[in-house]
Amino acid sequence: MNQTRHIAARAPLIVDPATLAEDPHASFAELRKNHALIQLGEGQYMALRAENVLPLLTDPRTTQIKGKDYVRLRGIPDGATARLLRDFFLFANGDEHRSRRTLFARRLPHGTMRDMQTEIRSVADAIVADLPRGTSFDFVARMAARVPAAMIAGILGLPRADAPYFASRVYELAPAVAPIYPIEDHQRIEEAAVQLFDYVGDHLADRLVSPRDDMLSSLVASWQASQEISFDSLVHQVLGIIIGGTDTTRAAFAMLVALLLERPDDWAAIQADPALIPGAVSEAMRFDPSVGSIPRFTEAELEIGDIILPTGVAVLASTMSAMRDPALYEDPDRFDIRRDQPRLHPVFGNGPHRCIGEMLARLEMQEGLAALIAAAPGIELETAPRMTGFGSIRQITPMQVCIPEFQ
Description:
The protein has one domain (3-402): CATH 1.10.630.10. Helices cover 53% and strands 11% of the residues. It contains 19 helices and 13 strands. The chain has helices spanning 3-8, 17-22, 24-34, 50-56, 67-74, 80-87, 94-105, 110-115, 117-129, 139-144, 146-156, 163-173, 186-209, 215-226, 231-261, 264-272, 277-287, 319-322, 358-375, and strands at 13-14, 37-41, 44-47, 62-64, 136-138, 294-298, 302-304, 307-309, 314-317, 380-383, 387-388, 395-396, 400-402. A six-stranded mixed beta sheet has the order 1-2-3-9-6-4, with helices on both faces. Strands 5-13-10 form a three-stranded antiparallel beta sheet. A two-stranded antiparallel sheet has the order 7-8.
């Protein structure tokens, strides 16, 4: 089988990413009816239906897209951003992926994260107590961004006072993993990548000289003992963890709170029964996720629907589309905090690349929500946020709220 068969088969529908981004949920719903696969650009495709998306995450004919291919296919100019994406373990496979991921996996087991639940709640309580009363403010900036940034700082051993510094640069860098690279924003993305690389590198270098009782010291000690990767590569791995542990949870938590505030019965229900909170978190991540797709790369010919993809192309598994597919969820366009959820939530991926920070993200949202309903139950939504984009890390617009001065 070869490229000739691919051309001879039914050609995929070519969809303008800009049009798709206008209203992705509606677009996906319409496209799924007649198209299992669409094409976004040269050598870049997207699978839409749950029956294809979920198996694709572990299909042996595909691998996680390699960093060098990711950079090449998206036309990312050489520099700090490209070096990070080529090197981070998310975009690696096999032994290379295992050895780099293991640096963190053995330090972030679910049990350890659960042991931090009290600390997470303490951080969330302090942030809620610090929120303005009686005046409008942006919930994304004043709370949703602060909880995950403070926690990832605490886990790694970075000063929590530095969280606003590195978080703001993470938000600038995050669009680098959009399905279509925003070349018009490259200078801003590149500056953020350079600043974050220098920031993390300085802290790791300091731990080489003056070790502390923190994860960064443990990581750099393990690296020094084996030196299986370069020091710059170690910086990239830590930087990737910071990005993954900061931006996606910020957007997901804000959207969770907004969805609940838009539905007073649900907001009242979780206040009356906090046991509903974990289900609400899972449902919000299904309904409007902060991560829209997972990139795969074909290592052999692959048939999706009636399209035959050749070897060597990128195919995005649209978990965002799959999680609104009526073949997977009944009445998928209804937000239901009591919905039965699969054991493995699709938004976190599957297989060897399943999100390493899943438990931390869940606990941050659960404890952040619990802190909010305990200390600010009367919070009012003034301007709902909107999740933008349709793949990889999505972005969120500001969310204006007000907490009554006396309650």
